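Hi support team,

I submitted a single chain yesterday and got back a structure, but I'm not sure I'm reading the token output correctly. Could someone confirm the output below corresponds to the sequence I sent? I've pasted both exactly as they appear in my results page.

Thanks,
R.
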Amino acid sequence: NSHILDLLTEAEGRTACLFRGRSQKARSFARYELAWQGRGELKTLSLLEEQSAVVLTAQRLACGFYVNELALKLLPRQIPLEGFFEDYAHTVAALARPDEDLEPLLRGYERSLLHYLGEGLESIDLAALEPEDCYVYEAQRGLRLAGPGERSRGPCVHGETLRELLGGGVQTPRGRQEAKRLLRGLLDHHLQGRRIMSRALFPGASGQRQENQEP
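Hi R., thanks for writing in. Yes, this is the structure output for that exact sequence:
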């Protein structure tokens, strides 16, 4: 009859609450009006009233689980992050639109999350990038030119890809693959070995096939 809910709130960021209720259940991808009481880390909900909900199916549901799992594993509790609530809500709403291209949507969400983790790529000087030069972005260190041995292997990204990623969006197949590898590598650094289980929900989620087919 009781549930512990992990909630993303405008006022306090990620918040854990105890909810006691036999007839009512909370669901993912829904917006609620909330009220709680208590001073500890685990609050007790006194109001849980659904305002609206987004319905996701098939691959878009898997993307929704991925979006939620990243927030659960990377966001600190009870620290409001100005703007992230809106970024999250925009991403979930866009996932429900059948004409929305999933890959740039997820890259935008990953960039937003990295920004709030202090790994913002916005500090890169786009004017200084050479389109066909290869670069390496090291977590919490920044961007540098790739060495000779890193150009043929390793997490390299071309200057053109970085310009597109931080500009209007990545369009080329090479750029999309490099952008995904770059952002996922930075996220994995902050995850510190914790696995993102929802990645297994995507088609061909193993080895090279996962990298090619997963949004």
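A quick pointer for reading it: The mean pLDDT is 88. Let us know if anything else looks off.

Best,
Support desk
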